[in-house]
Amino acid sequence: MAFRFPQIILFLLAAMLFCPGSYAEQKPTAAQEARKTAVEVAVEGMSRAAVAGPTKISLGDKATLNLPEGFTWIPAKEAAVFMREIGNYVDDEY
Is 13 helix (H, G, I), strand (E, B) or coil? Predict the structure, then answer.
């Protein structure tokens, strides 16, 4: 039994060293890649449309937003596209 104990330890060490490596690099599926790309496109759209403060943002005839320095305004259209892409429900009043 004294010889068997080190063999079991060596086997377990080898299993711990080599098995996790086969699971570490799983490639994303085509659907995951397409979804990631759609989210990236939405983020790029938000970045292009973003308005950095300090500035005044007109909210139609309802109000004017005084956006302070250090804050960014994302228009509703671009924000809604992003929200839909990450799986949130957005209605027409968003």
Answer: helix
**15 assigned to some structural domain:** no
Query: For residue 71, what are the domain limits?
Result: 31-87
Tell me the percentage of the chain whose pLDDT exceeds 90.
51
Is 11 a domain residue? Answer: no
| 7 located within any domain | no
Number of domains making up the chain = 1
pTM, rounded to two decimals: 0.60
pLDDT digits (tens, 9 = 90+) for 40-86: 999 999 999 999 999 999 988 999 999 999 999 999 999 999 999 99
Q: Are 81 and 42 in contact (CB under 8 A)?
A: yes
pLDDT of amino acid 45: 94
Give Cα separations from 4 to 14, 16, 18 (angstroms): 15, 18, 21
* Rounded CA separation 64/70 (Å): 18
Question: Cα 16 to chain center, whole Å?
Answer: 31
